[in-house]
Amino acid sequence: MINLPILAFIIPIVIIMIWALLSGQCGLFVQTYDWHGRNAVLRDLINYSWPVYYPKTGNALNFYFVFWLVPALVGKVLGWKAAYLALFIWVSLGVSLSFLLICFCIKAEKLRDTILVIVIFIIWGGVNIFGMLLAYSANVVETLNVIGGDLWLRDQWFGEPYRYNYEYSSNNTLLQWVFHQSVTTWVATPLFLSNKSIRNYIFLGLCLFAFCPIPFIGLMLMMICSGFEQLIESIKNKNIAKIFKDVISKQNIMALLAIVLPFFLFYSSNPAVSEKSIGGGIKFYYPIEAFTIKRIILLLIFYLISYGVYMLAIKKDHKKDKFFYVVGIILMIIPLLQVGKGRDFCMRGCIAPLFVVMIWVIQYIIKRTREKKFDASIVTLIILLSFSSFNFTATLFKWTRAYINNGGPIVCDDLETYGNNNPEDESDITDFINCLIKEPENTKFYKYIGKELK
């Protein structure tokens, strides 16, 4: 139960709503170019029946669009503007729910606690400015781009045959670019932390899978490791029957029956996920021979800058916590793997474990401030978070300047619909191969579950 003063609740919620607007919601500020595709998905969900099929091209929309379904339903009844408003409310509710769950996890009590939570929530990310300074000082990038701090080790070649594609995105970047994946993961992760009962693992994990399958993998890896630890303890205590009883709980079985088959068939219909011939499947992102000494050193620096410095600062509270080390190892493994086509797994598979690290950092700071222990670790965390905030403040400055120069909001809605294109089409504003499938009538989803296509 959360017991907060009214201002400790209202002020953070207002801040969250402002943050959502600044991230592009409602089209009142500046939208990133990914919004061309985001707006098209929402419009198609309003204008077509579900699942979306395009008679003009014979293609089907195959994308993780569950997050848009509630706003789209509003749009079917009240129109586009109402849907846009509903999407803003939906995002704000999701972030607010995540905020309250974090407050529950850390036992926030006062206004200063909740303000600290929401401030760190918004500015959270790696100390990427150091990575950018490193790359610039080593003459591997030509310009010092503070705004693009998340990208310091992405799309870089460094004179080698395989480019470096490492990125752990900040929370502000996630809300601007992939709110449909980040918001639901931000809700699911503190739910997992607050109740690590295997009775809920399959249910919670599969609910996230329906919304966003890539972040689901990061959460699933943590659940598997936590469940394995509980299994070992049960074996030691000769109470293994309880583990199996928890695994087959009602909520877990219901989720297996209702979610696995339809959503697995739906998502696996996309060749970008399943066909290795076009870069799909699961594999190592780089061959073993690509790991030169330079690449290994830069990868270790990436680990340190993205999350390692935070974990080192708070390790004294987690010396005997096996799960603490599990999260660190998972975050080391994620950049090495590729799931589907492109680098999305590195950028999105890390959302849940990074969010866990953020919650631990918040918990550590609040605990120390309550105990009035302002030691070197607290000073270190304040400095690290200050540098982390550069991405948010620099991006806000950039978008504000763009807003002023444009004489108003910048709305990215040139695509309008996916109904006029094919998966192989090239575009600067979206990847059609990630969103469309040809001949959907031949996929198992439409053969056995989906509607009859006409």
Any overview of this molecule?
The protein has 454 residues and is mainly alpha-helical. The protein has 19 helices and seven strands. The chain has helices at residues 6-22, 35-47, 69-78, 80-106, 111-123, 128-137, 171-177, 179-194, 198-211, 213-236, 240-247, 250-268, 271-274, 293-314, 322-333, 344-348, 351-371, 376-406, 444-448, and strands at residues 53-54, 59-61, 154-156, 164-165, 282-284, 337-339, 436-437. It has a three-stranded antiparallel beta sheet, with no helix packed on it. Strand 3 (154-156) and strand 4 form a beta hairpin. Helix 7 crosses helix 8 (179-194) and helix 15 packs antiparallel against helix 17 (351-371). It is globular and about 65 Å long. The termini are far apart.
